[in-house]
Predict the 3D structure of the following.
Amino acid sequence: MVEYKYLNKDIEKNRKDLLRRVFYKEPFNDSDATFYDLSIYSSSRSFKSIIKNEMYKSQIDNRVILTRYQLEALNIIDQGNLFLSAPTSFGKTFIALEYIKRNMSTIHNIVFIVPTLALMNELLKKIYSIFGENYNICINSDEIEEENNFYIFVPERSDNNYIKKISKAKIDLLVYDEIYKLACEKKEIKTDDRILYMNKAYIDLINVARKIILLGPYIGDMHFEHTHINIDRMYCNYIPVFSEIIMIKAERNWMEYISNNSQLVYFKSPESIFKSVNKLLEFLPEDKSLMNKYQEEIAFLENNYSKDWYVVGLLKRGIGIHHGKTPMFLRKFYENEFNSKNLKVLLCTNTLMEGINTPAQSLIIVDDPGSVFKLNNLMGRVGRLNPKNPIIGNIYIYSDKAKEKISQIDQWEKLVIRAEDEESFSDDENLYLNKNYKDEQKNHEYQLKINKLKRYGVNTDDIKNNNLKIDILIKLYEEGITEFEKCTDIQKCIEQTVSLIKSAPYYKFKNENYEGLQQKYLPYKYFINNLLHKQSIKSMVEDFNMKYNIKKSINNINIFINSIFELNNYIKFKFCRIVDYISFINKEIKSPILKQFIQLVNSYNNKGMAHKILEDLGIEPNDALKIVETLNLDDNISTSKMIDRLKKDQKRVINSVESPFSKNNIMNM
């Protein structure tokens, strides 16, 4: 492994000084711009500069002139594998796509792994525009394959069948974007299944890929102690944009800094956003022109959710909200409208901020992101490259803790990927990442569990091939299946599942979260039943008001809607996995109630492939059903083929759907 380091502090300082002059439209020397690799801002039209620009021109976009650092990265990839650590505006993802463009004749199957659905959606749009005619694009395990395939992979789709499928396809190139998401704290690996399965996918796929590119920002040190893969490492602090950092005084209100330009407002969590919503709605007046522009969208939200939902009030003020619990059709709509400069502000968490290239001119950091690394990554979201009309990115910092971290932003962090760390934090990490505890007693206890499962006829490969958790499986064998078969109704089955599949957001339904409720708690397990039976949010809100929220508190309504969305995510990504466990045990099910329960869960979760793809593309679920019927779609389809059909029959498709959000997302594909 070879290290390439371009981290000279003096060069970084001088480059920033030159960028300041460029962005403030002050005179600067063209030779300095060339030396610091900022000739994209130079007005020189010398013969030498013209020749250089031709040589450095991108094959994806001939308006883009590659920097020498980007060319260096491309040369390294030509020779072997590359781990690239560079700031957000370096163009890391662009380099991976540039390499593919230059080598399409020899690259037939590509796997591009990203950590979030938001990043998947942005990448999908970009890849379709560049490679839609050359590659069949897939984002789900059961999509059809062709000779040349571009698989976009997210943790939610990391089932073993998908990994097996793409492994058999002979991977010519594996790109792992935002590689830092494979690292975590000790408690995270035990509570967030996605981290475990992401790391498992990492191990499985790097062992079969012909060429590997790993990408991440602000990583100062990276090692591959567990896999020992042969990969060159490049660290570069090159930034071609300029941003000003403005500290908001503690006595000021951060809302005073909301502007009419493209602006992101960062919060640490959806809960933190919600705490600020009422004050924000009071602080900013409704915009009549936007209310007129979005009258169909507003009516849809009021009719299908609640007229009191704060999302409606924010939209009337030109503000979107983007986090992991926001429905996909809304997320896509907000991204479209923000990128089109129709919405002026997006309230967001890491879901949007990590890796998404939104054209933001300013950023307000309301909360502490938690580390210097995360702060650096946030600040890279503004001041995007625009050589002809460079715009200064303004970063407003309100959080006192974030202010304290500013002095440390030049200190890049060491990254320890869980799959590359010899230390294990959990039984499942031992199993899936081929590790052992350092503590011999823990290793002994782990082996006892494995031996117990062997007595039930289960070996470790069986568990890994089905992405199952050891403790849940043992509980099911010992008593779980018996308890399920004792259930006298669907509700009892739900309660038994919740006791096995942890992480249900019960705390969201505690009395203390609401105002003036007489009940000690809200029956969230009954709400799971309602969602499984596909009761609408609107109907659930009406029931909530009638039974619990007697005074019709608007704040209570909004808390309840937020909680239902979180409960729905739990059902979708965790609760429904109970069917996998029961099916794995393969015991003959005699109980009619248990059979009915399994059918209910399958009905909720097992949608056809065409329907799944449409929802991923931002189509509201009811509209997805109508499009499948209108276009007579079967499930023998891929994402790129679906986009082709939607574009070809756009007018007919738009006329068939009801939601204005679906229409917007179809028109912006």
